[in-house]
Fold this protein.
Amino acid sequence: DQQVKQNSPSLSVQEGRISILNCDYTNSMFDYFLWYKKYPAEGPTFLISISSIKDKNEDGRFTVFLNKSAKHLSLHIVPSQPGDSAVYFCAASYSGGSNYKLTFGKGTLLTVNP
Amino acid sequence: KAGVTQTPRYLIKTRGQQVTLSCSPISGHRSVSWYQQTPGQGLQFLFEYFSETQRNKGNFPGRFSGRQFSNSRSEMNVSTLELGDSALYLCASSPPHEGGYTFGSGTRLTVV
């Protein structure tokens, strides 16, 4: 049962344009969402997060949008740069109970073409 | 400030053997989590330790175990290795609040 889904395995974008990466979740108890970026042979690097009390969070070129009613979040990268080419993982967690883990999607490979 | 350190970076083992992987968290971080990354399954949660206690465990067989020491360093052990255990094993540490997970570079385990 995959609770966090990234339905697009890959995405190709031109440099300077917007990259939009999508993520859906099924567990309504999730209340904290994160995006990680991963290069080959390296660990994931934290990009940006959002709490369920918000619907938008911005950090420089990165913006995450959360639609709780649709159980959907997206990461926007504007403008996209070739160095953004990596695998992007969406992750979710919830603060209640004894849960101390992140549930990840399977990732989306973003390629930004010069 | 040193990051999360995982050793070794690469490891090749034979089926049936056992392996121990090590993780040193960021100084001051008391929570250490382990994840397995495979091409087909993405990142899957193995277990999480805080103050030497396992607080949560993922859906992995009992061959996968771990522990945490008083200095917050953690080890995970896989016994009776199978070919399907070949993966990148990632360790993440976090301070005692929501989010803030910092990952190490991982240990690439290959079982032959």
Notes: The CA atoms of residues 31 and 96 of chain B lie 7 Å apart. The interface with chain A takes residues 4, 6, 31, 33, 35, 41-45, 48, 50, 55-56, 58, 90, 92, 98-106, 108 of chain B (CB under 8 Å).
